[in-house]
Amino acid sequence: MRGAAGEAAVREFASLSGWALPALRAWVSGAPGDGVARALLVLATSDGLGDAELRAELVRAHRDAQPAGGRAVSLVHGVFLFAHRQYRLCADHLEAHFGRWPGGEVAALMLDSFSAGGDACCRERGDALVERQYASAGPESWVWTSRLAWTRAEQGRPEEVHELATAALLLNPRSGLAVHAWAHAEQETGAGPAACVFIDEWLAADPRAVQFKHLNWHAALQALAAGDFADARRRADEVLSRADVGMRAATNWRLLLAGQVAARRSEVEHVRELLSAPGGMAEVFHTFNLALALACEAATDDLEALARRAGADERSEFARVLAPVVRALAHLTASRPQAAADLLAGLGRGVERLGGVRVEREIVQDTLARALIDAGEPERAAELLHTRTTTRAHHVYEDLLLGALPAQTRILEEMPHG
């Protein structure tokens, strides 16, 4: 049994609370020989650990978990795979783990491995697993209700997301996953300012929440949808730091596609350093975000070099999906919209292999719409965004994507910093 400290730590971690790290550290301090406690602390801090330290901590956690039995050992092994970005192996392991020990809230913390694997079949297996665990745990479990809400968000079923997220938040008002799922549903419906208000009120109760930056990014997207570009820039400038390259680039590229002034941007040299660092191209979605950062700076030569590098990669999602997307970005920044449109239109549903989630991948569709408009094909662009413009309450952003940009704000020109 975890004990009171362990139960509190797991709840804070599962809630994505600002108190998660202090609670985990207190648990490890009070039970230094608890392998699961140590593994979860590593899971929460793995991005800041070097390879040697990461391995040493998890080897120790695995050793310490042995006396607690098979379930503890299995959990630590799952953390080892997840922290080392072995997402497909982790997904396989979790299926076996939940087969033996259903309903575990600790193992649920690693379920993103199914979507991070970048494979549609893997994501579908993860969805089915969540369905089974929710059915087993019942609607009184805020963890599994939140997780099912997230699954429904990725499936594009916003009405069910609202129902499930509301139920989860009644059980635990601080469920960050429920709020995150809710934010995705609000994006699908184009809620606009109302979504920003809700996110700000929820974050005000815990400004240290793990998802503080990411939920502000969602609010920035809602501001874009409603045409409040100043608020979108404000959130990017005040909340996102130099290290938040992906979210900053994803905000700024949208602003530029809509003909708006960008927020503070990333330095090209910094992006080059990230790409050349160990692990710089370990994940396809991370690399895609770095490509967006280069596109925001109209770094055509860098984009073409990255496209060549991705095209030579033995991983199919890099060679067959990322490479043409990056090449399309290079074409668009070099005023070759037809070439960009041809590449992006040819990908179809293959874009899903970029990883990330629906809202994050939507930017590829945005880019295709802009390329089609600039190539003189407004009918194709309008058809592409038809669902969004007819079902979202606020869609100023989409309207701007479907309009011609004034010459002085074209993407290929040097844009002033916000």
Describe what you observe in this structure.
With 418 residues, this protein is mainly α. It has 24 helices and no strands.
Summarize the model shown:
Helices cover 69% and strands 0% of the residues. The protein is mainly α. The chain starts with a helix and ends in a 17-residue tail after the last helix.
Essential attributes:
418 residues, mainly alpha, disordered C terminus
Topology:
Layout: H1 3-14, H2 20-30, H3 35-45, H4 51-65, H5 70-83, H6 87-100, H7 113-116, H8 120-137, H9 142-154, H10 158-171, H11 176-189, H12 193-204, H13 212-225, H14 229-239, H15 245-257, H16 268-276, H17 284-296, H18 300-311, H19 316-333, H20 337-345, H21 358-374, H22 378-384, H23 386-391, H24 396-401
Helix pairs in contact: 1-2, 2-3, 3-4, 3-5, 4-5, 5-6, 6-8, 8-9, 9-10, 9-11, 10-11, 11-13, 12-13, 13-14, 13-15, 14-15, 15-17, 15-21, 16-17, 17-19, 18-19, 19-20, 20-21, 21-22
Structural Rg: 22 Å
Unreliable spans are 414-418
User: Which sheet architecture does the biggest sheet show?
Assistant: none
Globular, elongated, flat, extended or rod-shaped: what is the shape? globular
SS class: mainly alpha
Into which percentage range does the β-strand content fall? under 5%
Number of helices, where a helix is a run of at least 4 consecutive DSSP H or I residues: 24
Order of helices and strands: HHHHHHHHHHHHHHHHHHHHHHHH
In round numbers, the mean pLDDT is: 93
Determine the N-to-C terminus distance: 53 Å
The helicity comes to 55-70%
What is the β-strand count?
Answer: 0
